[in-house]
Amino acid sequence: MQQLDPTIADFIAHCRHAKALSPHTVRAYTQDLADFSSFATQERSISTVSGSDVEQYLQGLNRRGLSPATIKRRLGCLKVFFQWLASTKAISDSPLEQFKLTIKQVRRLPRAISRKELRELVRVASSSTTVTPKGATDLGILLMATTGIRVAELVALKLGDIDTLGGQVRVHGKGSRERTVFVTNTDLLRKLKAHASARLKVSNIDGHLFVNQRGAPLTTAAFRARVRKTCDASKIKRRITPHMLRHTAATLLLEEGVDIRIVQRLLGHQSISTTEIYTHVADMTLRKALVRADLARLLN
Known about the structure:
The protein is mainly alpha-helical. The chain contains 13 helices and three strands, in the order H-H-H-H-H-H-H-E-E-E-H-H-H-H-H-H. It folds into two domains: about 5-85, Tyrosine recombinase, N-terminal domain (DNA polymerase, domain 1, Orthogonal Bundle); about 115-295, hpI Integrase, Chain A (Orthogonal Bundle). It is globular. About 30% of the residues are buried.
């Protein structure tokens, strides 16, 4: 009988190599399954895990105070894991095939930053070499805020993905899905071309667009740290994260009247319902503008 822990290790290897999932997803699966293994005991046979066991595990997560989003993610991970076991004939059927559990999750509105905050962030990033060693932090910020790419997608960009003549960038998204985003602003395209040209002098087209001081590929954690340091050195009063730049791109595009299906493609959303949440943010901005205008006041 196959035990739980060795099987989890095989599944993680499958996700990393055969499915080529992103390091972020592999890390999340590893953490989630390690937690479930601790609950179910590592020596347990995988064939004895039932839907009841999983339900008890999820109830335990709730008692531990984990958020609905985290619990939902853990359930999704377990479903994928047991589906894989069934597909490899390690078990006859997934114990979660008929498993249904409604997890109420509060849908939070995306947090975007204002145009003023974005200008201040770019100003500091482009002028302070002490805050942003090796430069290019301002380029990364602008690319995220204008194309909506994820921070993991940003640091994964390679020189061969950049087409400065056409103003196109090939993005390697979630689930090994590729998409193209466009850099249409002349100044930003010039900045991108200058940086890519400088990198090509010391690397080939397989080299990463963004690197650290040692010349190694920049990590998501390192870029987050750069944004945090830039924010700390600016006049911005709140904490800014890279993901807020992605939210900003979606919100600004919708505010400028770009069709929601185009925004969906740019962001790499599989479902348009994921993109639709940004329309609420754009509507709130519209409402604030109307309050400021107060057209009825002009009639008095």
